[in-house]
Amino acid sequence: MRGEVINVPLRLLKQAAQTQTGIKTLTCAIMVSCRYVNRLVYNPTVAKFMDIFHVSKPTAIKYRKMIMESCLFSYDKKNGTLYVNSFKSTEKRDFGRHFKSADDYCVKVPVDICNMKLGIAVKVLRKLLMKHLVSWNQRKESLNKHQFNCEAPAVGPKPIKLREFASYIGMSKSSSCRYMKEIVLKGEVHESEVVMEAVSFTDSRITIEEYRNKYPEDYIFSMPSYYYHGNWYWRILGRRYTLEDSEWSRFQHVIYDHKKRKSTIYGHTTNDPFDGTDYHDNFYGKGRIY
User: What stretch of H or E contains 103?
Assistant: First the structure.
């Protein structure tokens, strides 16, 4: 299973991350899908859940009840089997030339996540969400910079606050700070120094209160500036984060049944020496589509 991944729609992951129950239930569904290719658990007893999720008996009892009530799972009482429902979107869109298909923007989760403890697996998913926020911000800024200019952006992406990460993954500011430090130490994301902006040249308390009301989500403080000469009030904008090149492949737009589209439109065969649309199918053979 080394190197194999499973495609999980980001819309599902972002929605589940807003609650503890949601992210843990989704993690259980992913771990079952990675462990069993047919996504079936026969005779789902507490002992079996202890083995799958690597948890204690009281924890397994709690998660068994949570799983049975979740819409991500279907339980067949007659056969005594538990099934993980498909993650794929059912809504179809037009992709040109009379071709309709469902699609999702997915994150590639390593299949080895099934060998981890449940708590560590939840942490891995939250870190992937944080990386996605970095990649989305970096891509958006790059597109805006290049819209009317052929030169590459020199400043970098827009600064992101820890509060934004915390809201995105459904955790506290301190937890998002700890997660980001671990990601940066591994070299998966690069961060800059704190980005600040001068807002006022005065020591009047009235002025600083006005600026705190103007920027309620920013931290305003007083600090001397050698460039502007004098004592200025500054606001913290956050840090600039950039994703490591090797991490970009973790996020990909998946068009389901795209091979069928290629065979009907382009006459694609397995013996074709070259196919200009191969980049659409990077998820085939490199990720399970559920």
Answer: strand 100-110
| Long-range contacts from 84-91, C-beta under 8 angstroms, 24+ separation | 84/29, 84/32, 84/33, 84/39, 84/290, 85/29, 86/290, 87/7, 87/8, 87/9, 87/12, 87/29, 87/290, 88/9, 88/256, 88/289, 88/290, 89/9, 89/11
Alpha helices, H only, the chain: 10-16, 20-35, 46-53, 57-68, 118-146, 162-169, 173-185, 205-214, 258-265
Residue 210, exposed/middle/buried by CB under 10 A (0-12, 13-18, 19+)?
Answer: middle
Q: Is the pLDDT of residue 173 over 80?
A: yes
Count other Cβ atoms within 10 Å, centred on residue 237: 17
**Using one digit for the tens of pLDDT, what is the confidence trace for 186-238?**
999 998 898 888 777 665 555 667 777 777 777 777 777 666 666 777 888 88
Max distance between CA atoms of the chain, in angstroms, equals 79
Distances (CA, A) of 147 to 135, 151, 175, 272: 18, 10, 36, 36
Which pLDDT band, with edges at 50, 70 and 90, does 148 fall under?
very low
Residue 63's alpha-carbon distances to 27, 167, 196, in angstroms, are 11, 25, 45
Closest of 197, 199, 190, 198 to residue 240, by C-alpha: 190
Average pLDDT in the chain: 78
How do residues 14-25 score in pLDDT, each as one tens digit? 999 999 999 999
Residue 41 neighbours by CB under 8 Å, 6+ apart: 32, 48, 52, 81, 82, 83
Tokens 């999720």 — which residue? 53
Long-range contacts of residues 142-149, Cβ cutoff 8 Å, at least 24 apart: none
DSSP assignment string, 1-27: -TT-EEEEEHHHHHHHTTSHHHHHHHH
Separation of alpha carbons 8 and 5, rounded Å: 9
